[in-house]
């Protein structure tokens, strides 16, 4: 993806970008105006055709995309820097984000309903072969594809051309994964979903305390690894000063971590489920396949509760609306910083994006989500599967470090400046 924080794009094959090239330019006013107009028209359409919650989710998505871009906040390079040079700064920002999220999710899940009176449920999924294989595949895929699920969306919003390739094959992989999912969930062994809150005697208060302890322990371990490996620090990116920084970035990681947790909780209160991304990819791909005559409705994935989504407009799908919002929010943020531009596609990063997109799409379906739905949303929902997803994705990252050079993709070295 673009970056986890103030760092180089991970598919840049020429090494770290010079810091001065990341300096903010004059705002791209025509692009900003275009983005605002598109957002307004989409908002009007949603208000006219869908429940008001969809309009609210579009606004939340815009804020998510704006936050992701301005903080360069992601997951792919956080895992890669941890695995390659031992830099855990971004991983600690994840722990802060998760700490704030569980603090907000606990009372909502324990007592709350949505703003509209509907039920609220977190992401708590089974732990089995499907999760293990899917998360490992996703870990490899995000390192080859140049970004995770959220990173793919906000990189597209910033104009990173190769990420359009990643998205296309992300959708293809998710669609194939949806077709194969009954085999993985019904034929492969798995344990029942396990919640730290409801599957134990802890309750949400006890689960919150256990979670906070775990986050603190993980943050402490990253500090030990950094000291032992003498990890390089991340170099800052030039930024607007004062209040202009809110609109033109770059934002500190800790601020983005808090904002993302707040927005995820707001998503939970709006639609009754946490933030997710990749289920929409399976929906888009299945609708396209159906348009070409594939009997998608007969797939096991589209039976039961999912059947209605396949028949309805994509704008009735809350995850789709959030995704469009993220892309549009990142687009406006990049234009506000004068940074929107299409980038070069090479044979190496094209091939890596094809393979990475396929692995992420397929892996996300098997693992009941991606870095957002399974890792962020799962852990925030006190689900054991979220922690296991993170471990297996990190394992996939270690393997991908040996694969990236085959496509001309860089891997940070211990004596490099992480910038």
UniProtKB/TrEMBL annotation:
Q: Which GO terms describe its cellular component?
A: plasma membrane
What kind of membrane protein is this, topologically? Multi-pass membrane protein
The positions making up the signal sequence are: none
Output the Pfam families linked to this UniProt entry. Answer: Sulf_transp
**Subcellular location(s) per record:** Cell inner membrane
Protein keywords: Cell inner membrane, Cell membrane, Membrane, Transmembrane, Transmembrane helix, Transport
Q: Output the PANTHER family linked to this UniProt entry.
A: INNER MEMBRANE PROTEIN YEDE, SULPHUR TRANSPORT DOMAIN-CONTAINING PROTEIN
The molecule here is called YeeE/YedE family protein
Q: What is the lineage of its organism?
A: Bacteria, Bacillati, Bacillota, Bacilli, Bacillales
């Amino acid at each position: 993806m673009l970056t986890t924080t103030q760092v180089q794009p991970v598919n840049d094959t020429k090494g770290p970008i010079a810091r001065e090239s990341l300096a903010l330019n004059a705002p791209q006013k025509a692009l900003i105006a275009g983005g605002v107009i598109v957002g307004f028209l989409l908002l009007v359409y949603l208000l006219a055709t869908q429940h008001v919650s969809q309009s609210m989710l579009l606004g939340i998505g815009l804020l998510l995309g704006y936050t992701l871009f301005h903080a360069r906040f992601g997951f792919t390079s956080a895992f890669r820097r941890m695995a390659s040079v031992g830099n855990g700064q971004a991983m600690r920002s994840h722990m802060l984000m998760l700490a704030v999220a569980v603090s907000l999710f606990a009372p909502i899940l324990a007592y709350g309903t949505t703003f509209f009176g509907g039920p609220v449920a977190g992401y708590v999924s089974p732990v089995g072969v499907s999760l293990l294989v899917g998360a490992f595949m996703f870990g490899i895929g995000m390192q080859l594809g140049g970004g995770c699920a959220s990173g793919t969306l906000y990189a597209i919003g910033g104009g990173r051309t190769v990420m359009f390739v990643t998205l296309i094959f992300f959708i293809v992989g998710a669609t194939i994964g949806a077709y194969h999912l009954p085999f993985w969930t019904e034929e492969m062994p798995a344990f029942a979903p396990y919640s730290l809150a409801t599957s134990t005697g802890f309750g949400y208060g006890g689960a919150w305390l256990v979670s906070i302890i775990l986050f603190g322990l993980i943050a402490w371990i990253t500090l030990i690894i950094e000291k032992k490996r003498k990890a390089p620090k991340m170099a800052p990116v030039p930024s607007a000063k004062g209040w202009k920084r809110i609109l033109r970035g770059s934002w500190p990681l800790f601020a983005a971590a808090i904002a993302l947790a707040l927005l995820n909780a707001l998503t939970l209160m709006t639609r009754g489920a946490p933030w997710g991304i990749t289920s929409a990819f399976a929906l888009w791909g299945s609708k396209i396949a159906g348009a070409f005559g594939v009997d998608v409705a007969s797939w096991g994935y589209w039976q039961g509760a999912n059947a209605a989504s396949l028949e309805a407009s994509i704008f009735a799908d809350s995850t789709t609306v959030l995704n469009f919002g993220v892309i549009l929010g990142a687009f406006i943020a990049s234009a506000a910083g004068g940074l929107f531009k299409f980038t070069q596609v090479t044979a190496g990063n094209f091939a890596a994006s094809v393979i990475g997109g396929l692995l992420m799409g397929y892996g996300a379906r098997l693992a009941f989500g991606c870095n957002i739905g399974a890792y962020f949303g799962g852990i925030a929902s006190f689900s054991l599967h979220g922690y296991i997803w993170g471990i297996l994705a990190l394992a996939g990252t270690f393997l991908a470090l040996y694969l990236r050079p085959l496509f001309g993709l860089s891997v940070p070295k211990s004596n490099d400046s992480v910038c």
